[in-house]
Design brief:
Blueprint: H1 8-20, E1 28-39, E2 45-50, E3 55-60, H2 62-65, E4 76-87, E5 92-105, H3 107-121, E6 139-144, H4 149-161, E7 166-171, H5 180-193, E8 198-203, H6 217-225, E9 230-234, H7 242-246, E10 249-250, H8 254-261, H9 265-303, H10 306-349, H11 351-356, E11 361-364, E12 381-386, E13 389-394
Parallel strand pairs: 3-5, 6-7, 6-8, 8-9, 9-10
Antiparallel strand pairs: 1-2, 1-4, 2-3, 4-5, 11-12, 12-13
Helix pairs in contact: 4-8, 5-6
Length: about 400
């Protein structure tokens, strides 16, 4: 018997028909843990339902979601009621949910909350301990899978914003048992080399199991101990991991991480121009201040210059000389007038003037004045001073007269 060759859509439609006609699959009640929850803008809810051994994709349409009595969360244990079928466009097997009942909290979610509480108490999430992301970035280290979409998104965003920034990839495993150890190695590598300004760790979205490596305590400790600031960019906007809480900055997606740490090239040029302008202004003000200070020093030096002192000394000497000359002249004038007065008195009382009146001065040979008759001796030589000269002679005393 020859089997007919079917197209993909025919196979999908055939499977859908079989599933839609199965009584059990059309009346399912399935217990599991919610994972990879997505609340679409259309109002539809997408998530995975899983247990320790398997996973089923689920969808709850908007009209059914209105009837939910509680918000859905990753890690929540629920009982889903609905039907299983195939979405023929992609061949995806999924459960179409009509009702969801809360059952409890999943094991991984409990483990996540327990570790989160422990690290919070130990100070791993303290804001004051987080390092600032540098504003001047020249090199960015990325720790992620070299084949994943995350590295491509990061590269595209960085290159779009700034072609000058260097991108250094440390290829790490981001999924699977023990993958977190390679992420730790990447962090230690960049810290040892000190060749980047910031480190981005992360990956694309996934279930809580797929993202679990970023919930490991050893990785949280490595992030906390890093000397280089770390940005955690794990999953999508609704995904949160321990790495997000302990990192210096959390980005909703790898693309956003690249956006947050990469300065726009035009902003760098503008900042350089502004800094240059401000520097020029500062230098101009500094030059003006120093110029004014120099001028004040020059004026002070001019005022206190030894040459000024010498000139002032000359002026002072000249003033003193003039004052001395004036004083001496006054003194001479006074003394001159005084001398004239004394001379006039002397002239008035001078014997010469008396001689002019006919008197004479008589002295002996010893130049003694002969003022009375008793001063004369017989035949004594005498000197007679008259008005117009001297006469020398001798006389014979014949008789002494009486007093006048």
């Amino acid at each position: 018997m020859k089997i007919k060759t079917l197209s993909v859509s025919e196979v999908n439609n055939y499977i859908k028909k079989i599933l839609d006609n199965d009584f059990i699959l059309n009346n399912l009640s399935v217990k599991g843990e919610i994972s990879n929850l997505k609340l679409h803008s259309s109002g539809h809810i997408y998530f995975s339902l899983k247990d320790s051994a398997g996973k089923i994709n689920c969808i709850m349409f908007k009209n059914r979601a209105y009837d939910l009595q509680f918000p859905l969360e990753d890690g929540m244990e629920v009982i889903v009621k609905g039907r299983a079928s195939v979405y023929t466009a992609s061949g995806t097997f999924q459960i179409y949910c009509d009702e969801i009942e809360k059952e409890g909290i999943g094991e991984l979610y409990i483990k996540f909350e327990k570790l989160k509480s422990k690290l919070a108490k130990e100070g791993y999430f303290d804001e004051e301990l987080k390092k600032d992301i540098p504003k001047e970035i020249s090199s960015i280290g990325v720790v992620t899978s070299e084949t994943g979409a995350a590295i491509q998104d990061i590269k595209n965003v960085i290159r779009r914003r700034n072609n000058l920034v260097n991108i250094m990839l440390y290829p790490a495993q981001v999924q699977g048992n023990g993958a977190y150890k390679t992420i730790i190695e990447g962090i230690k590598y960049f810290n040892r080399k000190k060749n980047v300004d910031v480190i981005i760790i992360g990956r694309g979205g996934g279930s809580i199991e797929e993202l679990w490596n970023f919930n490991e305590e050893d990785l949280a400790i490595a992030i906390f101990k890093s000397n280089i600031p770390i940005v955690s960019a794990v999953g999508h906007e609704v995904d949160f991991t321990i790495s997000d809480f302990v990192a210096d900055l959390r980005a909703a997606t790898p693309s956003q991480a690249a956006e947050l740490v990469t300065p726009l090239e035009i902003e760098i040029y503008n900042r350089i121009e502004n800094n240059q302008y401000n520097l020029n202004k500062i230098m101009e003000r500094k030059f003006d201040v120093e110029k004014n200070l120099l001028e004040s020093y020059d004026e002070l030096l001019r005022l206190k210059s030894p040459l000024n002192k010498i000139v002032n000394g000359y002026l002072e000497v000249q003033n003193l000389k003039e004052r001395l000359d004036f004083t001496v002249k006054n003194k001479i004038d006074r003394e001159k007038h005084k001398l004239i007065s004394l001379n006039e008195i002397l002239q008035a009382r001078s014997p010469i003037n008396i001689l002019r009146k006919g008197y004479a001065i008589i002295k002996d040979d010893n130049d003694n004045f002969l003022k009375s008759v008793g001063d004369f001796s017989d035949k004594e030589d005498i000197n007679i001073t008259l008005r117009d000269g001297y006469v020398k002679g001798s006389f014979i005393l014949t008789e002494r007269g009486g007093d006048l």
